[in-house]
Every structure is written in C-alpha cells, then in structure tokens.
Amino acid sequence: MPRGTIKSGWTLTSTRGEKISAVEGMKLTPRMATALAESRGKTGDERRTLVKEQLAKTKRK
What is the pTM of this model? Predict the structure, then answer.
C-alpha cells in the first residue's frame, strides 16, 4: 500500500453508490439503469464499452 494511503475496510458497491446518490438527490435515467443492469458481472472495461455503445446509439438517432 502506498505511503499515506488509508485503508477504509469497505468497498463502494452499486447498492452503496445508489444510497449515496439518493441522499444527494440524484438518480439514474431509465436508459442508464438498463445499460448498467445489462453490464452486471462484467469487468470495468467491458462495462465502460457497453455504456459508450449506448451513448453512441443515442447520438446517432
């Protein structure tokens, strides 16, 4: 672990992220919720690629 790094002991999961966003008054659009649901269980790179594809489809319309 790099010097000066604090280990918090927890991971930011989708559920925790949703709770934090709810407190801030933010929520996913139905389109993004679908894109994220379709990408569950994939690596970060795979998820980013799927989200980019979804955004590209929207721009072409």
Answer: 0.50
